[in-house]
Amino acid sequence: MRFWPWRKEHWERPEPPSEITLQAIGWVRNDVAKPRPHGWENVVSRIELLPEHEAKLHRIEAYSHVIVVTYLDVAAGAPEKPGQMTLASGNTYGIFATRSQLRPNHLGISVVELVAHEGCILTVHGLDAIDGTPVLDVKPYLPEYDAVPGARISGE
Description:
Distance between the termini: 51 Å
Helix content: under 10%
Strand order of the largest sheet: 1-2-7-6-3-8
Oligomer: single chain
CATH topology: Elongation Factor Tu (Ef-tu), domain 3
């Protein structure tokens, strides 16, 4: 028996969609009222998932860190949609080379410490999302996949 019984021996990829509709699975709750570029390292947030997702959190507390995917909804209404940004250093970077929320799809991806799990609520430390931000997904952080020793980063 194959692991993916729905797959056939001969499989052709369907045409990928150009538009995607996602549903929030929960929301961020914290004391941060508006976006800011820095100062997230001490923020404690609750991720309140919808009740139908509670079983999907089973054994999440076995992990010290999780990856949280959010939709940065406030950024979606920003009047500017820059292709590049000049950082405090004076160097200019393409928007994909920054952590700015002013991205084409306004997705936030953060690795955060998992402090607690109770029912549908995860308490996390260091999430860079304001109160009310929609949560799209939560995944365990796996160092063998998610950490790259010796990765190169900008000197900014």
